[in-house]
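Quick start: what a row looks like.
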Amino acid sequence: METNFQIIKKQILLSMACLICMAPLMAQTETTAGSITPEMLAAFRAETAMQPSVKAIRNAVTSGNVRQLVQNNENRGRVDDFFTYKVKVEGISDQKSSGRCWLFASLNAMRGLVIEKHKMKSFFFSQNYSFFFDQLEKSNLFLEEIIHTANLPLSDRKVEWLLKNPAADGGVWSSFVNIVEKYGVVPASVMPDTKQAENTGSINNVLSTLLRSDALKLRSMVAARLKPADVQKTKTAMLSEVYRVLSVSLGEPPLEFSWRFEDKDGKVSELMTYTPQSFYKEFIDVDLHDYVQLMDDPSREYNKVFEIEYDRNTYEGVNWKYLNIPVDQMKASAVASIRAGEAMYYSCDVGKQLDRENGILDLGNYDTESLFGITLPMTKKERIQTFESSSSHGMSLCGVDLDEKGNPVKWLVENSWGKTGHDGFLIMTDRWFDAYMFRLIIHKKYVDPQILKLFDQPAILLPAWDPMFAPVE
């Protein structure tokens, strides 16, 4: 009986013989430098054949689920769910099939303060109300910028970016601030989610098509040298159509409402009448401008302030502006905030190494390298530079577990995917936090004064199309 070595040896000799037979044909055929050649293919086959386990692996991969096959069972059970400090959170939120995580993360971070201050049994803000005006304002911003760039060709990079991103449903903390300061907030019961709010793909498609069509009309009006007042009048009529689409899909936002709540002792508060603005002033009793935006992006210079063009939702609002610092410098501030009972807006590349069933984020959850016999050695900086990683999801950072020296071991985030994961939460090991954490919004009282001083420098403007700063889903 032939041994495996003898079989493999025969396969290699056979491949070499085939190459010799093909030599005359290859000599008659011109090959371009850089192309895949028959010699390469023969070498690939021979190299693969020399690995005895390939057949077994191929059988498993071609008939199985790769995600399950690369799951590292040795890593399961190594992360417990105990935390040294944890912000009290009541209830579980669910963004469903929508890109509103940034609204959930922002409002959930504020929700804990409201519950604590008023001793509520439970409370949720209406993401639907804020989303309505976010989409209306983004539509206005898009149309205004189309007017401003009307004299540029359609092939211009800025015009191209605008037409690709008319009114997405993603966003960041500063967009949340722009909206709630202008329009206020309401409880979830006052303007609950609709099917379209929970599944924003359809409404996004309708608005994108409508706005792109409107963009061509506005560009034609500017090209025809019509009066600016007439162009603005047409833009207003276009926004009226956007409003109608939103009203039909999401419901009509209330101008005022009556509302009361139950506290933890079962006592029901007095029925009061509010406007969204008065409710905001009474229940979000903080200055949102006291919160600073921090970022860990090793592909750019640290200790510098950056601003992203068009990364906002209102025409008159502020763009997203942040200070870039190493992740280790953020941790002391994050721990201080959690110890004080204040959750934070947090965003990361959540899909990397996520054990969704158990709600665990750890670098050892999946071992793709062993299955395919490859290495994936990129650093955080290299992943950003090659489009391999970016901030993809916003959540609320609300817990930390410390070792005996006070160093973080793992972190807890309140998610907005319903009861999935760890009862609606995700647990991140500290090494995962280092690798895939990007953005943190934190009250400045928890930040080192020397770090706060860095915000005084002029911001470096980055283009809207920078892949690292696409709106979070």
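That is the whole record. The longest strand covers residues 393-402. The chain has three domains: 4-52, 125-283, 289-469.
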